[in-house]
Amino acid sequence: MYQFLSYWIDLPIVDALQKLSHHSEIADAVLVKILTRPTFKMFPCVIFAMYVFFCTRDDRKNAFICNLVIGAILTIASSRLLQDFLPARPRPLHANIPDFIPPFGIGDEILRDWSSFPSDTMALAMAMATAIFLHSRRLGVLFFIWSIAIVGFPRMYAGFHYMTDVVGGAFLGVAGTLLVDKLLRKHLVKMLRYSLANYFWVTNVALILFLFQAATMFDDLRSSSSELKRAIQQDYLKIARGHDDITVSARHN
Predict the structure, then answer these.
(1) Burial of 111 (0-12, 13-18, 19+ CB in 10 A)
(2) pLDDT tens per residue across span 201-233
(3) Alpha-carbon distance 203 to 196, whole Å?
(4) CATH topology of domain 2-104+112-217
């Protein structure tokens, strides 16, 4: 599947972006070093969510927060599962594409052990943008544009993702939040109202902690899960080798 997508869609776009990158250190610094930071990717969505929940009296704000929080959690969990269990896809940086030259400031080891498909950054951005769209169509369109231009494009430009990674992540984010809105929103709003009525401060602190994690792209949690997975694999290999050594020793005896 990856070979088909790469040949017909991804590689032509990578080739086109290559003609733009590695010409200006200023342009590469803006697109690669600045716009890929969490402050520019997720912080606008987080600030808007905090404003709606803490600073307005909109009757729909509970539904908005439920869609945003649970949609984001469902999306990022689904994205991580797909990255962990689908066949690993090297990022353009590490795919040995002929004549590929990374933009200025991109090292060889960045994101080397992370599978490329889907883009969990784009998935989270689109999940949150979809929640905003369900709350306010006009602002939602702006956040969709922001997600495409500020989140998706720089990641392709930097060689972090292919076009299909970004599109796949976007689809996952939109679908996850819409699924929450259609199937779970009413039940979640009731649970949130009960929680606010009985555990007001705990609920608010939990929301602030979630928004902090969203602003940082759940980096601690994603890195921890990847490290744990790697450690489990290494321990499994050691155990398997130990059994093999015991078997070989028994045969010789």
Answers:
(1) middle
(2) 999 999 998 888 888 877 777 667 667 767 777
(3) 6
(4) Vanadium-containing Chloroperoxidase; domain 1 (1.20.144)
What would the two tokens of residue 160 be?
Answer: 């972090």
d(CA 224, CA 49): 26
pLDDT, tens digit (0-9, with 9 covering 90-100), for 135-156: 989 999 999 999 998 888 888 8
DSSP structure string for 38-86: HHHHTHHHHHHHHHHHHH---TTHHHHHHHHHHHHHHHHHHHHHHHHHS
Ordered by start, the domain boundaries in the chain are 2-104+112-217, 220-253
Cβ burial of 170 (10 Å; 0-12, 13-18, 19+) is buried
In this prediction, residues 22-34 reach a mean pLDDT of: 77
Residue 20: what are its φ and ψ, rounded to 5°?
Answer: -95, -35
